[in-house]
């Protein structure tokens, strides 16, 4: 049984599986899967995870997965559709401003591998359940402002997921070296990648109470890259995501990521990847 609720940029629906195993498959875009009821085993890229009511999984287009249910199981599924990725976040529309939404999504997608399987902590289970229930109720009740409320609920869910990922990364780094700040610096850069003033070396050094030279040496010792080269490398990954999953032009992407223009973006992209952004886009079209 399936029921669908279509919003402008996300598709929200429930799906019930009664048979033992669903076939292995992948998706064209990104997907959050929340377990409303039931239990079983979720296989993602040949890795097996037990699941039960209240668990949440994030899937990317590269993931191949299937469910083996131990009892009748119902999921709430949030698909991030093509229209979501095709919109320039800087353009003003009559809808909610999705620029923060898109950027939060990017942080989650580029760091989700740091949490395997279920991405909800026990402390957050109650709030996730309340948000998912309200998300499904918005369309059923057909009340005013349901679209904007649904978008904001999804946005809040992504913030919670991003926080879980960030805390998991930092906690693991602290176990290895309690004094190590490198993942805090990397997280700060990633979350402020669109704010060129905040990721200048002097601003970063001020934020982490170090001199610019000391911070840069420390960063290179820990990562093998200077801060500038790391920023460019992360921007390249964001460019590849935009080229693969959106119809934004090279100049629009360049503007978002604070390159001088499309030529500047292409120069940095080619230096890192061996081909221009235009050539890369041709390989995926």
TrEMBL record:
Q: Which superkingdom?
A: Bacteria
Query: In its UniProt entry, what is this protein called?
Result: DNA-binding domain-containing protein, AraC-type
Keywords, comma-separated and alphabetical: DNA-binding, Transcription, Transcription regulation
Pfam families linked to this entry: AraC_binding, HTH_18
| Source species | Galbibacter orientalis DSM 19592
For this protein, the record's PANTHER family field holds: ARAC-FAMILY TRANSCRIPTIONAL REGULATOR
- Annotated GO MF terms: DNA-binding transcription factor activity; sequence-specific DNA binding
SMART domains with a match to the protein in the record: HTH_ARAC (SM00342)
Q: What InterPro entries does its record include?
A: AraC-bd (IPR003313), Homeodomain-like_sf (IPR009057), HTH-like (IPR037923), HTH_AraC (IPR018060), HTH_AraC-typ_CS (IPR018062), RmlC-like_jellyroll (IPR014710)
Keyword DNA-binding attached? yes
Domain HTH araC/xylS-type: residue ranges: 183-283
Q: Which Gene3D superfamilies does this one have?
A: Homeodomain-like, Jelly Rolls
Could you list the residue ranges that cross the membrane?
none
């Amino acid at each position: 049984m399936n029921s669908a609720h279509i919003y402008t940029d996300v598709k929200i629906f429930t799906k019930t599986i009664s048979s033992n195993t669903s076939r292995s498959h992948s998706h064209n875009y990104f997907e959050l899967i929340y377990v409303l009821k039931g239990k079983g085993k979720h296989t993602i890229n040949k890795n097996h995870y037990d699941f039960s009511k209240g668990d949440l999984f994030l899937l990317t287009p590269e993931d191949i997965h299937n469910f083996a249910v131990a009892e009748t199981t119902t999921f709430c599924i949030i698909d991030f559709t093509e229209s979501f990725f095709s919109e320039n976040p800087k353009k003003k529309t009559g809808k909610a401003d999705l620029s923060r939404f898109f950027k939060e999504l990017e942080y989650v997608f580029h760091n989700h591998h740091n949490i395997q399987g279920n991405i909800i902590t026990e402390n957050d289970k109650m709030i996730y359940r309340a948000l998912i229930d309200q998300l499904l109720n918005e369309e059923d009740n057909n009340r005013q402002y349901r679209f904007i409320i649904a978008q904001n609920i999804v946005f809040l869910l992504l913030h919670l997921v991003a926080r879980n990922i960030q805390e998991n990364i930092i906690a693991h780094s602290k176990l290895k070296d309690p004094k190590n700040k490198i993942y805090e610096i990397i997280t700060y850069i990633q979350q402020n990648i669109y704010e060129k003033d905040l990721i200048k070396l002097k601003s970063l050094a001020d934020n982490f109470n170090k001199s610019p030279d000391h911070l840069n040496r420390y960063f290179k010792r820990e990562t093998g890259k200077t801060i500038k080269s790391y920023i460019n490398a992360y921007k390249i990954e964001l460019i590849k995501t935009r080229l693969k999953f959106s119809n934004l032009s090279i100049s629009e992407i360049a503007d978002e990521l604070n390159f001088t223009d499309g030529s500047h973006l292409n120069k940095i992209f080619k230096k890192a990847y061996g081909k221009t952004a235009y050539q890369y886009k041709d390989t995926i079209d």
